[in-house]
Amino acid sequence: MRGSPDRRLGWLLSSSALSNLGDGIGKTAFPLLGASLTRDPVLIGGLSATAFLPWLLFSLVSGAMLDRVDRRRAMLLANSARAALVGALALLVLFDATTIWLLYVMALLIGTVETVADSAAQALIPAVVSRSGLESANGKLQSAEIVGQTFLGGPLGSLTFVAGASLPFLLNSVGFALAALFLLAIRGQYRPRVVGPAPRLRTQLGEGLGWVRRRPLMVRLLVFAAALAAISELAQALLVLYALDGLRLNEAAFGVFALVGGVGGLLGAALTARLTRAMPRRTVLALSVVGCGAAFTAMGLVTEPISASILFGLFAACIVVLNVIIGALRHALIPEHLFGRVLGVWRTAVWGAIPVGALLGGALAAWLDVRAVFLVSGVLQLGLAGALWLVLGHYQREIAALDADEPEPDDPEPIRHEQVMPAPTPEPTRPEPTPAREPVADESATAGA
């Protein structure tokens, strides 16, 4: 029997929550293990950069492959592979056979598989919810990520690391394995239908790049998101050193510090829909970036742990609001049969900017200090908020498509809805959203990032 959309979304969210729990444990345990091997800020920043480097190298290929294969199966296999890799790392830690360079290798391998797992989860969202439910589904996916990675995974990773350095990696492996098992409960086929001979991979990559290039709104959002990712990672890559050395917290307290960020993230996910109903999305996005910048600027000035953790919670809340809106906008505007490729382009630029920011942050901290990096990151984010406000003032019609279940009647480029949907009734065709028009001087806009 085929599952209902709500049930399929529930299984997908449950699987994502478990895999994010594994991610949260690992993202706390990895830097703690790295800090136990070295306190060099360049090497710590490099470890964070290595974890995100696969998004720069393989996002395009992973996205194109997801438009050729069953996305549920790809996600299942990727989570299984992550379980095996992290399980092997747990054994190496148990037998005291780790070095900082081994951590680099494992971070690279796990990050490579993650490009498939995370992109597949995003690509499955439009297949299990209606267009009108995209923002809600993205909010739930963000909440699952926050609960798993920071609310539960962060504290659990730090506490178990204190009990035994190999234990968090073992729990990480179990989380990925359970996430794979949960995907077995999602019935149906999730492979995009290909009409005629399957195109070459190179052709598919070109289609994704071409789609983005022809849409000025997506290009501008892409540039903004990449800039924010790099600027915020200047400081985020050094968070473990900020907490352990700057705030004088121990390893267990570091998880509690991350927990406050999780609480802030959950608050942001819960408030996003209310905020976008009360204010234009352009305003919400700009204010959220202001909140991010103000939080990091203040973190560079305070020395008291409670104040610093509250500020980190503010940053997490604001960044989640951004992620929820931008995820919903992507789903509303990108045709499903192109979603994997376009998401690959997006994450190559945005997530590929993260290792650049991490390396620059490590170098800047070695030149100045960790606290100064937070100040620099915060001030740059405040400047980015002003630029975002100005840029999004010209795209009211394109951004308004986020709220529409049906495309605009004058869409000139209808695109067939080619995703195979496991639903009892055929999925209707859906034209591609209208390409960006020339700006109108007095046009106000709402936006999603």
From TrEMBL:
Pfam families: MFS_3 (PF05977). Residues 403-412 have a biased composition (Acidic residues). Keywords: Cell membrane, Membrane, Transmembrane, Transmembrane helix, Transport. Residues 423-436 have a biased composition (Pro residues). The keyword Cell membrane applies. CDD domains: MFS_MefA_like. It is found in: Cell membrane. This is Putative MFS family arabinose efflux permease. The chain crosses the membrane at residues 43-62, 83-110, 161-186, 221-242, 254-272, 284-302, 308-329, 349-368, 374-392. SUPFAM superfamilies: MFS general substrate transporter. PANTHER family: INTEGRAL MEMBRANE EFFLUX PROTEIN-RELATED, MAJOR FACILITATOR SUPERFAMILY ASSOCIATED DOMAIN-CONTAINING PROTEIN.
